[in-house]
Model the fold of this input.
Amino acid sequence: MGAPGVAQLVDAFHSRRPVERLFLVYEHHGTSLHELLSKGWPQHLCLIKAVATGVLQGLQTLHLAGFLHSDIKPQNILVQMLDGQPHVLSCRVVVGDLGSVEEVSAGSVMRYT
Done:
């Protein structure tokens, strides 16, 4: 998608063995929020705000494009420390795992999973 707050799709391919499946490949984007929380992070209000802002920005991007992310959870929120330090100026947050998005069209929802 290449949009703010959303993981960048790099490639897609399908396999017919053992059953037909579509695989989506996204940019490597650091660590999941789930893993960071299990390590006691974030501990500062500015980091919590940065994560919340990144998630809301990603959801807004998806919603404006007509999609819903139906599996928001810490495992699907990706945090990248740009300089290795856990502070707000070096943190990029995106919504990942877009395999469960749903398209919203004229009041109906089309599931892709």
Notes: The beta strands are 9-15, 21-26, 31-32, 67-69, 77-81, 91-95, 101-105, 108-111.
